[in-house]
Amino acid sequence: MNNDSLLATPHRSKLGDDPVEILRFAVEAFAVCRVALATPVEIRGGAARALGAQIAICEDGSFCGYVSGGCIEAAVAAEALDAMAWGEDRNVRFGMGSPFFDIVLPCGGGISVLIHILRDVTPLRYALDSLADCREVAIRYIAATQQLLVCESPTRSGWIGNDFVTIYRPALRLIISSYAIEALAVRRLGAAAELDVVLLQPTQYYKLDSLIDAHTAVALLHHDLDAEMPILTKALASQAFYLGALGSSRTHKKRREWLLAEGFSDEAIGKIKAPIGLFGPTKDAKSLELSVLADVSAARLATFGKTARVITRASNGKRPGHPVIVPKSLFSNMKDLDGDVGAQDILRQSSVAQQLCDIASAATFDIDTIEDANRAAAERPLIDLRRLTH
Predict the structure, then answer these.
(1) Dihedrals φ, ψ of 64, to 5°?
(2) Could you tell me if 9 and 154 lie in one domain?
(3) 239: CATH
(4) Given 231, 242, 278, 313, which is the most exposed site by the fewest CB atoms within 10 A?
(5) Which domain does 79 fall in, by range?
(6) Residue 215 near residue 172, CB atoms below 8 Å
């Protein structure tokens, strides 16, 4: 460790894991000192945070953000300070498979954290501007040059080739339509959860076109089907990831009949969560607000936090190797491969995220033929494929 890094003691400057707060902290600190971004890029077993979570670490030891449940953030910050002192990015393993026997994750798993020393915050400023405009944005870490570039968003944060892509999504917008007390209760809880809450009356349906996007949930809390219809019909034709409506199963049957008569398909009507909420029936406003917010959160996690198809590659140190487990979506690209024509080009050009699993027995040369496979078996001990399905 470089002695200069001992001058600073890691200490949390801000609580919270809001990407906007973390990026803003990094940009503001960059104006006066060196700054690093730490990002989980591999998860082994369980973990408290997803790939792409981040901490911003300032040269004075202050940091903002989370990469775990709070158990290794100070250790990650210490590594970042050392990386800044040496002037080189690094990838550090914590928990399972880590050289630090005294740093254990309570969940029993392990993570690899990529520490990048910021040299240009232009991509971060672009991300902040995009999030302020409620637009999703992705930043790609180019491993070969240790730099960040804005790129097209994949399905989720993860490896694409030898680079890691982090996705930043805008705050969830919750549109509530109602005249009743339930709307005020749900709005109060949504605001406490720091959602972008918009309360609309049915006569304001014309505002929906500028408000609804793929990160919007719509909650219709009317006790009258006629009152909800102007906003319901608009919301059904939108990109909203969640659409819920108050009322019993009998009420929803009437709603469905009306929508069918208006020309809506069964598929479109199937987007409506009715009765609204994760649990119920609720008999008071406070129970309803909990049920609605829980249901919206669960739907968002299912939409944006679900496990995407990934390519899992064994690696020996930092170099990707074999075996490689590919999703079924790439089978058609590989079925015509023959002899010494390998799949490296397909893997490099694929937009499917890649994750690396570091195991000592990974083969680091291309395996295209039976002879190659026999060579790998002779030079390396048996590879346990269960290690690749964490």
Answers:
(1) -140, 130
(2) yes
(3) 3.40.50.720
(4) 278
(5) 3-168
(6) yes
Q: Tell me: the pLDDT tens digits for 50-80?
A: 899 999 999 999 999 999 888 889 999 999 9
In whole angstroms, how far apart are CA 138 and each of 21, 131, 133, 152, 164?
Answer: 16, 11, 14, 6, 10
Residues 373, 388: Cα–Cα separation, whole Å: 18
Distance CA 113, CA 92 (A): 5
Nearest to 185 by CA among 298, 276, 56, 61: 276
pTM of the complete model:
0.74
- What pLDDT shows up at residue 382? 47
Q: CA–CA separation, 283 vs 141, rounded Å?
A: 50
Q: How many domains does the chain have?
A: 3
**Burial (0-12, 13-18, 19+ Cβ within 10 Å), 346:** middle
Cα–Cα distance for residue pair 81/4, rounded to 1 Å:
9
Place of tokens 């309360």: 199
Q: Which of 183, 182, 181 is nearest to 204 (CA)?
A: 183
